[in-house]
Amino acid sequence: MALVGILTAIDSIKSSLNKQFSLMGSNSFAIESKSNEIHRGDRHERNVNFAYISYEQSQEFKKRFAFPAIVAVSTNVTGMATVKYKSIKTNPNINVWGVDENDIYTSGKIINAGRNFNSDDLRLNKHTVIIGSEVAKSLFKNKENPLDKVISIGEGKYKIIGVLKEKGASMGGWDRICLLPLTNVRQYFSLPDRTYRINVMPINSQLLDISISEAEGLFRTIRRLKIQDQDDFDIQKSDALVEMVIKNTRIVSMAATIIGIITLFGAAIGLMNIMLVSVTERTAEIGIRKALGAKTKTIKQQFLFESILIGQLGGVVGIILGILIGNIISMVVGGGFIMPWDWILTGVILCFVVGVVAGYVPATKAASVDPIISLRYE
User: From CA 275, how far away is CA 266, in angstroms rounded?
Assistant: First the structure.
């Protein structure tokens, strides 16, 4: 139960993460400002604002990138905003981003109600906003329609034009987000060192690597880098994040497997004790069987079979409970039902091995009992 339950839950969470990240656009990549890592003795500093990508550079790239792809430009405003509607306000944990009209497509966001930004929103620096589902639930109780309502973000008033579809807890703060027109952010949240993020999604996913090469060459030109210069920007593929998460879940899987093996070791000791007690209690029965002609091999097989049967019965119950527990956890985190056939087969084999190992010593002890002593045991 412990082994199958934990590993089923992990497989369910992994499946949910893969599904969620596929919605982000697994065939996309982002051009970001390069981080600068500095080592000073025992100190390790990381300056994430090294080599800023300016608004002008991002817009020049968007205009000049001729590859068949969707290009979006965005910038992070803050991750600790408080959003207000009348007397109601959220916790100070709302992510605010400035985005253009293409961000919805390249980031895999889905508008559940309302509309996306249009050219007028960006050209006129309009005070419009698209909010996440959690923001909508926090501000608008009793199923009140949030569209066309005016909310406060910082010192500004913004009219809600869209509500994003819920992504779930596994996607972190995606539901606690407010999207503002990129031009509005430049005007009302201006910073001298603000950096911009360029997200690119090729129309044909098979041309991802080629489009990355094209984008790198173009952006080097825009940044006026010489041939011998290293890139002063990073290119992050969206599936790199998936690989990082899967790598972390592998570590958790290994830890869960170790826990399961320890549990099985304890179960083997318990089963061995049960069988040893059974041998002692059935000494007279063993003596009668031997007196009637039962061979030592037959007695040994009988007790070994009983041990394996007990192990398999316990294994079946444990597998059923493990699947139920694992999928309950999966439902809590927003995953779907999963039937872990690999772990079921593994559980059956492990229970068989445990039955053999735990039953061998009691079976050997039972087979070596003297029939004369056994007959007068009681």
Answer: 14
Residues paired with residue 78 on neighbouring β-strands, in sequence order = 96
CB atoms within 10 A of CB 134: 21
Q: What's the pLDDT score for residue 20?
A: 60
Residue 24 confidence (pLDDT) above 80: no
Length of the chain: 378
Six-digit token string for 203? 């129309």
Higher-scoring residue by pLDDT: 85, 286: 85
pLDDT tens digits, 99-126: 999 999 888 888 999 999 999 999 999 9
Q: Describe the crossing of helices 283-291 and 296-332 by its angle, rounded to 10 degrees.
A: 140
This prediction has a pTM of: 0.60
What is the residue extent of each domain of the chain?
Answer: 52-231, 244-375
Residues 6+ apart with CB under 8 A from 37: 44, 45, 46, 47
Q: Could you give the CA distance from residue 211 to residue 200 in angstroms, rounded to a whole number?
A: 9
Residue found under tokens 């779930």: 168
SS3 179: strand
E runs forming strands in the chain: 29-33, 36-40, 43-47, 69-81, 83-85, 88-89, 94-99, 111-114, 128-131, 150-153, 156-164, 177-181, 197-202, 233-237
Residue position matching structure tokens 């065939």: 27
Amino acid at 3: L
> Tens of pLDDT along 48-101?
445 789 999 999 999 999 999 999 999 999 989 999 998 899 999 899 999 999
Tokens of 66: 């001729």
Helix or strand holding residue 261 (H, E): helix 238-281
